[in-house]
Design a protein that fits this description.
The complex is a heterodimer of chains A (about 900) and B (about 90). By secondary structure, chain A is mainly α. Chain A contains 34 helices and 9 strands. In chain A, the strands form 3 sheets. In chain A, strands 4-6-7-9-8 form a 5-stranded mixed sheet. In chain A, strands 1-2 form a two-stranded antiparallel ribbon. In chain A, strands 3-5 form a two-stranded antiparallel sheet. In chain A, helix 4 (about 55-65) packs across helix 15 and helix 16 runs antiparallel to helix 17 (about 330-370). The radius of gyration of chain A is 50 Å and the shape is elongated. With about 90 residues, chain B is mainly α. Classes of the chains: A mainly alpha (about 900), B mainly alpha (about 90). Chains A and B meet through helix 5, helix 11, helix 12, helix 14 and helix 29 of A and helix 1 and helix 2 of B. Chain B: Keywords: Membrane, Transmembrane, Transmembrane helix. Chain A: It holds the Pfam family HisKA.
Chain lengths: ~900, ~90
């Protein structure tokens, strides 16, 4: 049998060993050696194992003995979070490293605009939430001590019972001592606590081996093999699947949430993370650790239920089973395992909480109400360290008080679940902060407050039992006698499991309030900037918030930095910054970038909100510079620009396509025109040729023709040749004009004369009479151009009107006027006009309008266009007049010529 | 959301493999979660019907899924760790 004294001696020896390991690690780290171990993924993974506390070591077996496989949900949740490291943890670690976050409260306050109020709120909630958890550790150590004491044969007069309150007290003192010694050696919470981390890694190995050893002993030593164990499990009281679906889901979710939000888990996951790559290694290694820890839980529970007397505390099966089988050294080893689980948790939890308390509560109060301001000289590091040490004592004593208050009798798992429910309230705000830019500080404060109040009312207070914190009538009839406010059946919903009930209401209403208030509140600029940086952490990890630091003198900043960082570190930092600014002597310029870097450096020691407040005291307020806003707007601007570019391009493509289509249509029509012209021109050439041949044959062959007849036939031949010649002349003229070989004969003249000549000529050449309406006042314009060619154009246009105007009383109005430096002549008849389809073609060669007689070859308007082009003018068809109208534009004569 | 200009449409085979592996890394937790929620479908013991799931089956199932998830995670780590490290540093 192990005596209590032996046990205490082994325990003390173990603690001394831990001290030695921690001390050696600190020394090695200080000398820069042992990095391969201190910064290895193995140590990182093992340090995560502080998730497995005495709750796991003792409580899981008790849990399994009471409720079967449900205990495993507490390990499934964290396994899921680790396997899904890419989604949440990767972001958290990156944010933690780039913003030098010191705790979960620091992260939340930093995200929501470095709000000190939020930091205080989260800190208080975390302290309250974790207190039951620390009590749980004290209770488990005391329980395990008592089981050894009760088994002691020569019990002292105490009757084999130890004074549990005293035992718990001494355990608490020991833990506080260790934490103070190794947890507050260096101020910079961002630097890893090598001593603590390595001690925790050792404890992680010890507790895993201890539990595996007990498990192996139970399976192969007691039950007689794997198959027999499984058979025994199926025969036992917990031999059937009996987990409620609601509890299974709710507890998995709760454990996953707590794994992220627990201050101590945040400490080891994010703050103590030395290398982002370790996270992926831990993504499979840590679930493996959890699985091994839970592997033998059910066998131990079942064998314990089987072998141990009725009424034994199932929470202590891990110890009492080996003891009952006479395996004293195994029991001792198991005790050390449980001791390790409890101590490592308390150490890291108090470390994390004390950082939060000193950074977010003590320091701001000291800065506000202390007589000294930051400009004063003198080291403030002792204030920070002292406040941390006092916080450690405060937190551990709170845990001790909870232990005494709750009577130390509850099941371990039930206490743990309450704690989980409290810290899980951070989850909506935390996730909202890193994934949703719209989350605001007001929303976060409201959501946290509501969720936490619900947790206190539905989970924490009822845990003391009816009549303790809440009166029995409140349990029966609800708060203020309102039935729908009963703490175990909110809103009148009865029959839910108590844990499911509390988790469901507190988390969902928390999230709902957080989102709703965020939607309807408006964040401050710093808050929006921080939000953008947190959410887009992988896009721009660099700092993007500036100080208008021209007011701040570098000397003041130096004095302040020395007081927080220590003289040597501060001088080193300032020297490095000065070199970055390419100043090799003296202090660096207080540029926004430098002040920013300094604030980050200070944040690593005292938290973002405090560092921000201290720098603000000197600098006189943060300013959000235009560059910062641009950086935030950058992403959306890029998207916007890109989409507008796309729009422009697609519009250009549509335009080009339309142009191509119309060009293609025109080409097709031109090709048809060419074909029809060829047949037309052969016809045009053939008709005169036929008559010329016929009449010349008559002249040659027929005898006895009178001179009159000869004259008539010869004159027919003559006129046909003239027609042919005119056709060929037109073609030649056009080809000369098109090739630009024509030489212009420039003259000065008046438009009226040109039109007179054209009208006279056109009337003489045509028998059909058209009434011409002119306004001679407007025609008194001097031209400097090739007048003969211009006359040709007008003759052509007037002749066309004479030929093709279909009105009964054909009339052509000619109007001339001057607009700017252009002369405009409109010729409009009262005919039917030209349909839209043909308008595009009338100026093309050989185009003849369908359905119109006449003998032209379709060259007139083409020639007109070429002539006008040579004369630097323009001819166009007028679409908005009733009849057929053409507009001729010409440049005005240069007055100085 | 469309990709910003400048990201290529086609990747070389190695990068393509890496991206698909990262897809697997993202999907694995959802898969494991799905498997762990399967017990919700199991019958809860009922005095009238004796067809409850024996504890040994439940144990084998839950721990089997656990082990398979860890194995997948381990294999993905082996295949992607080096490239993730390169991307993080570069």
């Amino acid at each position: 049998m192990v005596s209590l004294n032996q046990l205490v001696a082994v325990c003390l020896l173990y603690v001394v060993g831990l001290f030695a390991v921690a001390f050696a690690a600190e020394r090695a780290a200080a000398r820069g050696r042992g990095d391969w171990l201190l910064r290895s993924p193995l140590v990182y993974t093992l340090s995560l194992s502080i998730y497995c506390t005495a709750w796991t070591f003792y409580g899981a077996v008790g849990y399994a003995a009471r409720s079967g496989l449900e205990f495993v949900t507490i390990y499934l949740g964290p396994s899921l979070v680790m396997i899904g490291w890419w989604w949440i943890l990767r972001r958290l670690v990156r944010i933690g490293r780039s913003h030098r976050v010191t705790s979960v409260a620091d992260l939340i306050s930093s995200r929501y605009g470095k709000s000190n109020l939020l930091a205080i709120l989260v800190t208080i909630m975390a302290v309250i939430g974790v207190t039951p958890y620390i009590a749980l550790q004290l209770q488990s150590v005391t329980l395990s001590l008592s089981i050894f004491a009760s088994a002691e044969p020569q019990a002292p007069s105490g009757g084999g019972q130890i004074n549990s309150a005293q035992a718990a007290f001494w355990v608490a003192v020991g833990l506080a001592l260790f934490t103070v010694l190794f947890g507050t050696r260096n101020l910079n919470a961002n630097e890893r606590h090598h001593g603590v981390v390595i001690a925790i890694a050792v404890e992680a190995v010890v507790k895993l081996l201890a539990l595996l050893a007990v498990g192996a002993f139970v399976v192969w030593g007691v039950a007689g093999g794997v198959e027999q164990t499984l058979a025994q499990i199926d025969r036992s009281a917990i031999g059937q699947w009996q987990v409620e679906g609601g509890r299974w889901t709710a507890l998995t979710l709760l454990a996953a949430a707590a794994f992220i939000c627990l201050p101590r888990m945040f400490q080891v996951l994010v703050v103590e993370n030395g290398d982002e790559r370790h996270l992926q290694t831990a993504s499979w290694a840590f679930p493996l650790y959890l699985m091994l820890m839970s592997l033998f839980v059910v066998p131990i529970a079942v064998v314990g239920l089987d072998l141990l007397p009725e009424g034994s505390n199932p929470d202590l099966f891990v110890l009492s089973l080996p003891l009952s089988q006479g395996q004293n050294s195994l029991a001792m080893f198991a005790f050390l395992g449980g001791f390790s689980s409890a101590t490592s948790m308390v150490i890291v939890a108090t470390l994390a909480l004390s950082t939060m308390v000193s950074n977010h509560i003590v320091m701001p109060i000291w800065l506000t109400y202390g007589q000294n301001t930051v400009q004063q000289s003198g080291d403030v590091r002792h204030v920070v360290i002292l406040s941390r040490r006092l916080s450690i004592l405060l937190i551990i004593s709170l845990g001790y008080c909870y232990y005494r208050l709750s009577g130390g009798g509850g099941a371990l798992a039930a206490i743990g679940t309450i704690s989980f429910g409290g810290v899980a309230q951070f989850l909506p705000v935390l996730l909202g902060g890193i994934f949703w830019r719209g989350a605001t500080r007001t929303g976060a404060i409201c959501g946290l407050t509501v969720g936490f109040a619900l947790w206190v009312y539905t989970m924490l207070l009822p845990s003391f039992g009816p009549g303790a914190a809440l009166s029995a009538s409140t349990f029966q009839n609800g708060l203020f006698g309102l039935q729908w406010l009963r703490p175990e059946a909110l809103f009148g919903i009865n029959g839910l499991d108590q844990t499911v009930h509390a988790v469901l209401w507190s988390l969902s209403i928390n999230a709902l309030v957080f989102i709703a208030v965020s939607l309807f509140s408006f964040p401050a600029p710093v808050e929006r900037l921080q939000g953008a940086q947190f959410v887009n952490i992988f896009d721009h990890s660099t700092a993007a918030r500036g100080w208008s630091a021209s007011v701040a003198a570098s000397e003041d900043l130096m004095i302040m930095a020395q007081r927080i960082l220590g003289a040597a570190e501060a001088q080193g930092f300032f020297r490095a910054q000065a070199q970055l600014q390419e100043k090799y002597d003296g202090l660096p310029e207080p540029t926004p970038r430098f002040v920013q870097a300094l604030e980050r450096e200070l944040a690593a020691s005292v938290g973002a909100a405090t560092a921000h407040a201290m720098v603000a005291q000197l600098v006189g307020g943060a300013s959000v510079s235009v560059q910062d806003l641009l950086a935030v707007a950058d992403e959306s601007a890029q998207m916007l620009e890109y989409s507008s570019q796309l729009e422009i391009k697609s519009r250009a493509l549509t335009d080009t396509a339309a142009k191509l289509r119309s060009a293609n249509d025109k080409l097709t029509q031109l090709s048809h025109q060419k074909d029809s012209f060829l047949s037309q021109i052969s016809h045009e050439l053939r008709t005169p040729m036929t008559s010329i041949r016929a009449f010349s044959e008559i002249l040659r062959d027929a005898e006895g023709l009178g001179p009159e007849e000869k004259t008539r036939y010869a004159s027919i031949i003559h006129s046909e040749t003239i027609r042919l010649t005119r056709l060929l002349d037109d073609l030649l003229d056009l080809s000369v004009l098109e090739n630009g070989e024509v030489s212009l004969n420039r003259q000065r003249g008046v438009l009226r004369d040109v039109l007179d000549q054209a009208v006279t000529t056109a009337r003489a050449a045509n028998t059909r009479v058209i009434k011409i309406d002119r306004e001679s006042a407007g025609e008194d314009i001097v031209l400097d151009t090739d007048l003969d060619r211009l006359v040709q154009v007008f003759i052509n246009l007037i002749t066309n009107a004479q030929k093709y105007c279909v009105a009964d009383d054909p009339q052509l109005s000619i109007r001339a006027h001057q607009r700017g430096r252009r002369i405009i002549v409109d010729l409009i008849d009262n005919g039917a006009g030209i349909d839209a389809a043909s308008q595009a073609l009338i100026f093309e060669k050989f185009s003849r309008l369908p359905g119109q007689g006449g003998e032209g070859a379709g060259l007139g308007l083409a020639i007109c266009r070429e002539i006008i082009k040579r004369l630097e003018g323009d001819i166009s068809y007028l679409t908005d007049v009733s009849g057929t109208g053409f507009r001729v534009e010409l440049p005005i004569a240069q007055t100085d010529v | 959301m469309s990709k910003l200009p400048g990201s290529p449409l086609f990747l070389e085979r190695r990068s393509y493999r890496f991206r698909r592996m990262m897809d697997a890394v993202r999907l694995l937790p959802l898969l494991v979660l799905g498997f762990w929620m399967v017990p919700l479908l199991w019958p809860v013991p009922d005095p009238s019907a004796g067809d409850a799931v024996p504890m040994s089956h439940a144990l084998r199932y839950v721990f089997g899924v656990w082990l398979a998830g860890i194995a997948c995670c381990f294999l993905l780590w082996r295949r992607t760790a080096r490239q993730i490290a390169q991307e993080t540093q570069g």
